[in-house]
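pasting for the record
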Amino acid sequence: MIDLSTYRGQTIAVMGLGASGLVAARALQRGGAIVRAWDDQESSRAAAEDDGISIANLAGDAWDDVDALVLSPGIPHTYPAPHPVAARAKEHGCAIIGDIELLAKAQPDARYVGITGTNGKSTTTALIGHILQHAGQTIDIGGNLGMPALDLAPMGEDGLYVLEMSSYQLELTSPIPFDIAVLLNVTADHLDRHGGMNGYVAAKKRIFDGQKARHAAVIGIDDEICQSIADALRDDATRRVIAISGDHRVAGGVYAIDRFLYDDLDGQNVPILSLDEAPAMPGTHNAQNASAAYAVARVLDIDPTVIAEAIRSYPGLAHRQQLVAEIDGVRYVNDSKATNAEAASRALSSYDHIYWIAGGLAKEGGLDAAASCFPRIRHAFLIGEAAEDFGQALEGQVATTQCGDLETAVRAAHAMAHREGNPDAVVLLSPACASFDQFPNFEERGNSFCRAVAALPGSARTIRNDGGPA
């Protein structure tokens, strides 16, 4: 746990006692701060109280002596409306911060790599961590992925934090001078939380705030918004700007063409490896992720051969195009993390004969971003609140079956895939929706898919993940 003794004697309010908020409250209290914590869920308050955390009703208690509010990223403080506790903090001129800022202030001598983007940030964060560990670097990985920031190990000047940064975290964080800041892509997401597309883009761009001449910005230029941001950063000339792409040549950058990775950082256009040698990195979107991770590692002076070895051996992440089983020649892929159509399109573009399980709690834009992939889909099996709307959107383009729930969809997709006998058939859970209509989170949705697949019949079965405890 990170030492927060610099806050000794200060009164710090903590709103939200999920994973990151509870760790923040613990670390602050251990560091000698006077903690006043709250969560709207009684069960979360009780769990924190059992852990020795002081509970106080922040919506009603006095604020005159509070030095800062640590707000969990999922709690709004601007759009669509400030949470009452955030509103109270603003009324009293109290700073609102997040756990990433606490980490940066407590570990000022460490180096930081920050990764954001609408899609691919978790895979890229994990891949960067894998490469650096393979190269023998002293690192820790967390933020929006895996371990909460304040549960990471103290790094000091010899260490490096690799942090996935969501737009929610970035809007809560005063500028952290990331030694390397990565922006992969930007498409519409979380627009209600940021007051529209302009607010969302502004939140993503904050990852570059505070950078100096010694720092680097790695930017995917496969969408117009990020291309524009890259151009603006080059004009600013404050830091080194490295462009990356998953599908076309980038002079002076890192890119892939037909899934072959090239390094042009020194103007030599050096071929590095075929990403077909990396089984956990299918599709053009993962070519962009690999390009970004390679660029980060090169900036950190890792040998290209070592980077290539690490990319080949990368095991992948759960719920992100995770191959969970092969049954009688049909592959079953868990892409539960695809909570919007843009993310789903990245999985859909990676396979040719798809029995697609989609639906849940719909986001803005419906299925428009996935439309170019519809010819790859043999049949769609629809679940959750979005099922009817998705059925209407797919009418005349993709045959559909209304399944209602995930287990029914898995059985139906399995039966049809085996009956039709298409070569390279894939049963793909890539919902293009949030999970909250039927599941508490995308992880449980993915685990439920794995359990349902593990229960399927078949004479030749290779079950890689049965949805049980890791």
